[in-house]
Amino acid sequence: MTEATDLAERTGDRDPRIGLRAVSALRRLLEQLEAVQVRSARNQGWSWQEIAAELGVSRQAVHKKYGRQ
Fold this sequence. Notes:
The chain is 77% helix and 0% strand.
């Protein structure tokens, strides 16, 4: 996870442009990782409720975001 570590370090840069770009890149990476894990959980038979509980969101929110993928 060198990319994530590098990005996390850049979030503390004194130059806001560098820090904000790093935050944005981390947000995209996190979204990708979440999608992979949700897909994996669904493939293993997890319910939307189980996934939602682990993510700390409602069942409706996780289903709306990933239900059609």
